[in-house]
């Protein structure tokens, strides 16, 4: 069967219709809204250029495909159009809004309507980019409107609550810095991982945490803290490339996502560049100068399957590791960090539990007169858990306590416990000086000396029974602050011992200037002087100098009778070590009246 | 140098000739064998008869645009599309379309070579 050729009229009509269609399509291709016509099942029959740009696919490739499979996903990774809702909306059509995973994040307003006049009921969709209109103010306004509606009718309460929650979930911007927040960061990371799937490359995350930000907040208030965060954001952003993403995770944490780095050394270079940019002095109220600094943890991956949570966890762990470094606060994630940090977290928890549950105890080791073994003083040493041989030793928990700031409550507990012991001993007529170790962090705490003296007053003890052992480092590094505190304490009668003497700076020249009563010569000298002529000369010089300055000398780590004799011969009169007693929960010599090898004991030196 | 309709017609691939209104003028024997249509089935019928429903609207619009502007992005290079057989099945095929003036009217010749697999999503945009 064949068809007749069109008549002249039909030809003219066809030409006119074709021209009309052509012009209409040209017009539709000019508009910025994405337009799509689908059949009732959502299969695409036609779309304009704006829609192909929105989904980034050529038109030929999408004809016949289902629109619901092609449109981008929202911030939660869910479809932004619900087929059931579209079908159910009928001739009235419907609208919705969605944020989609783009960089920058894109906000879409979607409208649809079924063409009921046609038997096949095609559906016309319109996608409008409303990103420019999306602002926190707008979201707030929407939330306020929701609130008003909620007040108007109780029956709509539940539905409006959901709306508010949905709005809050769509905020992807930090209100302080204007940077992407945690949600915005997750979106960007998801995009980067998706790109990694289609094109192999390297994704690098830099987790930045400001050092001592809490101090700034505490000292200058949150307003200044917020201004600092804005300045930090500005400085970091200025050191990044345009397609790098800087986000604020919360608090003083910033995260950078970059795909411009291919190796670890470049990642470290970037981190160093960021630290330099951040480190420029910043003036508060035209007076105080702050030197911001930060620790940076880095993780890199080529694995497109890795989750954003895992990447952030790794970068966070590396940052935690970087915090523990003394100078170069940069660390790259490696699997060994996992175990190390987990161990540290476990230890920190153990320490916190010990503080909360008050399971700590002081043990006491005598400091004796080397001539007759009489007790001169006892050193109170902190143990974490009573009667637990597996508890963390002080060499481990003290550094953790100092890093985490737990040293402050811990230190106060030790001082209080020492005062309780002093009071107990006075009560039973076994008075003795109790010395305790004080961390540099405690000494730097404002009002430290005042607190001790008030405590002693409250507990009704004579401060002269207390001695504080400090290390020379803090005295030399911050002499004005620390010597001032120590002078106040000495004035009230508290003794100050310089601990671990000989292990730090060239201490001799400093001795005359420091507000101390005694030096404790480090056990490393005691252990070796019998066989090492040099050490013997050093000890002899230390003892001689200290005596000339009117300071007492306590030699630590005495374990043998030969050491005791040798030190006595060199002029040392006081000593401490296993020869006279191990650290014990209750000082045995106080009960027996002897120290160490059964030597008779003279009463402790009266303060 | 551009391939002519005559060259396409003399090749071994399924061939179809369409007039300026989009109506089929003729097909070759290979076309009949591959897609099951006879020339009588198609002669004088709209070309959209051998196109899947989802492609018809775009085909008409593209055809209209070409008629009005004489501009096209689909001519002279292979396109991966689906072709409807007489029995209703769809076959993925590579369409190579050329246009020539016949007097003051355009005619269109195309080879439609069956291919395996799904349509290539990297095909150039904008039919017509």
Describe the structure.
The complex is a heterodimer of chains A (607) and B (128). Chain A has 607 residues and is of the alpha/beta class. Chain A has four domains: 8-133, PAS domain (Beta-Lactamase, 2-Layer Sandwich); 136-169, no CATH class; 182-333, Reverse transcriptase/Diguanylate cyclase domain (Alpha-Beta Plaits, 2-Layer Sandwich); 346-600, TIM Barrel, CATH 3.20.20.450. Chain A is 46% helix and 20% strand. Chain A has an eight-stranded mixed barrel, surrounded by four helices. In chain A, strands 2-1-5-4-3 form a five-stranded antiparallel β-sheet. The termini of chain A are far apart. The model of chain A is unreliable at 587-607 (pLDDT under 50). With 128 residues, chain B is α+β, with helices and mostly antiparallel strands. Chain B has a single domain, classed as PAS domain (Beta-Lactamase). Chain B is 27% helix and 30% strand. Chain B contains four helices and five strands, in the order H-E-E-H-H-H-E-E-E. Chain B has a five-stranded antiparallel β-sheet with strand order 2-1-5-4-3. In chain B, a hairpin with a 2-residue loop joins strand 4 and strand 5. The longest helix of chain B has 17 residues, at 53-69. Chain B is globular. The chains are: A alpha/beta (607), B alpha+beta (128). Chains A and B meet through helix 1, strand 2 and helix 3 of A and helix 4 and strand 3 of B.
Main structural class of chain B: alpha+beta
Radius of gyration of chain A: 37 Å
Largest sheet of chain A: 8 strands, mixed, barrel
Look at the structure and give the CATH class of chain B.
Alpha Beta
Q: How would you describe the shape of chain A?
A: elongated
Task: Please indicate the percent range of residues of chain B in DSSP E strands (runs of 2 or more).
Answer: 25-35%
Shape of chain B: globular
Distance between the termini of chain B: 21 Å
Please count the helical segments of chain A. Answer: 24
Strand count, sense and closure of the main sheet of chain B?
5 strands, antiparallel
Domain count of chain B: the total is: 1
By CATH's scheme, which homologous superfamily of the largest domain in chain A applies?
EAL domain
| Alpha-beta content class of chain A | alpha/beta
Q: Going across the biggest sheet of chain B, name each strand in turn.
A: 2-1-5-4-3
Quickly give the CATH architecture of chain B.
2-Layer Sandwich
Give the strand tally of chain A. 22
């Amino acid at each position: 069967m064949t068809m007749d050729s069109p008549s002249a009229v039909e030809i003219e009509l066809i030409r006119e219709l074709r021209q009309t269609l052509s012009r209409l399509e040209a017009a539709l291709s000019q508009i910025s809204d994405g337009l799509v016509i689908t059949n009732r099942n959502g299969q695409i029959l036609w779309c304009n250029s704006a829609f192909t740009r929105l989904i980034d696919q050529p038109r030929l490739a999408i004809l016949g495909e289902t629109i619901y499979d092609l449109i981008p996903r929202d911030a939660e990774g869910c479809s932004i159009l619900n087929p059931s809702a579209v079908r159910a909306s009928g001739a009235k059509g419907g609208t919705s809004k969605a944020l989609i995973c783009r960089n920058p994040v894109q906000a879409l307003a979607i409208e649809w309507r079924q063409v009921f006049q046609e038997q096949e009921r095609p559906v016309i969709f319109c996608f409008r980019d409303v990103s420019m209109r999306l602002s926190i103010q707008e979201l707030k306004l929407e939330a306020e409107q929701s609130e008003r509606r909620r007040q108007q009718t109780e029956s709509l309460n539940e539905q409006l609550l959901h709306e508010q929650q949905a709005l809050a979930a769509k905020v992807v911007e930090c209100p302080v810095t204007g940077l992407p927040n945690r949600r915005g960061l997750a979106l960007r990371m998801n995009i980067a991982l998706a790109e990694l799937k289609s094109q192999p490359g390297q994704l690098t995350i830099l987790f930045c945490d400001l050092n001592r930000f809490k101090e700034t907040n505490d000292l200058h208030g949150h307003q200044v803290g917020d201004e600092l965060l804005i300045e930090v954001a500005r400085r970091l952003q200025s050191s990044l490339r345009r397609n790098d993403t800087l986000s604020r995770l919360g608090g003083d944490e910033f995260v950078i996502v970059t795909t411009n780095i291919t190796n670890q050394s470049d990642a470290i270079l970037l981190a160093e560049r960021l630290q330099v940019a951040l480190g420029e002095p910043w003036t508060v109220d035209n007076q105080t100068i702050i030197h911001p600094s930060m620790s940076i943890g880095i993780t890199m991956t080529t694995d497109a399957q890795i989750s954003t949570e895992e990447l952030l966890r790794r970068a966070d762990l590396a940052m935690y590791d970087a915090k523990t470094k003394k100078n170069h606060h940069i660390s790259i994630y490696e699997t060994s960090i996992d175990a190390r940090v987990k161990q540290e977290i476990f230890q920190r928890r153990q320490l916190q539990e010990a503080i909360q549950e008050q399971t700590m105890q002081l043990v006491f080791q005598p400091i004796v007169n080397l001539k007759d073994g009489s007790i001169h003083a006892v050193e109170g040493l902190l143990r974490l858990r009573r009667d637990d041989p597996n508890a963390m030793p002080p060499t481990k928990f003290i550094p953790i306590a100092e890093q985490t700031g737990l040293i402050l409550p811990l230190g106060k507990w030790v001082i209080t416990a020492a005062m309780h012991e002093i009071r107990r001993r006075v009560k039973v007529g076994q008075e003795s000086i109790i010395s305790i170790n004080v961390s540099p962090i405690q000494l730097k705490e404002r009002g430290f000396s005042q607190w001790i003296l008030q405590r002693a007053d409250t507990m009704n003890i004579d401060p002269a029974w207390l001695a504080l052992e400090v290390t020379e480092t803090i005295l030399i590094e911050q002499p004005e602050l620390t010597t001032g505190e120590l002078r106040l304490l000495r004035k009230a009668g508290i003794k100050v011992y310089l601990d671990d003497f000989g292990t730090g700076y060239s201490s001799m020249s400093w001795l005359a200037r420091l507000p101390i009563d005694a030096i404790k010569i480090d056990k490393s000298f005691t252990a070796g002087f019998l066989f090492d002529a040099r050490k013997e000369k050093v000890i002899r010089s230390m003892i001689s100098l200290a005596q000339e300055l009117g300071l007492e000398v306590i030699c630590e780590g005495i374990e043998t009778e030969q050491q005791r004799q040798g030190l006595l011969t060199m002029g040392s009169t006081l000593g401490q070590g296993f020869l006279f007693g191990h650290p014990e929960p209750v000082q045995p010599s106080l009960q027996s009246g002897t120290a160490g090898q059964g030597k008779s004991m003279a009463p402790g030196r009266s303060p | 140098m551009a391939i002519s309709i005559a060259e396409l017609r003399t090749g071994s691939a399924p061939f179809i000739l369409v007039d300026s209104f989009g109506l089929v003028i003729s097909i070759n024997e290979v076309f009949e064998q591959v897609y099951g249509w006879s020339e009588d089935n198609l002669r004088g019928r709209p070309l959209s008869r051998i196109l899947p429903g989802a492609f018809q609207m775009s085909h008409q619009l593209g055809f209209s645009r070409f008629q009005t502007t004489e501009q096209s992005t689909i001519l002279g290079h292979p396109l991966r599309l689906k072709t409807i057989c007489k029995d209703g099945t769809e076959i993925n095929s590579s369409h190579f379309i050329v246009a020539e003036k016949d007097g003051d009217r355009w005619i269109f010749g195309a080879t439609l070579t069956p291919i395996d697999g799904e349509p290539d999503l990297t095909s150039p945009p904008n039919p017509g």
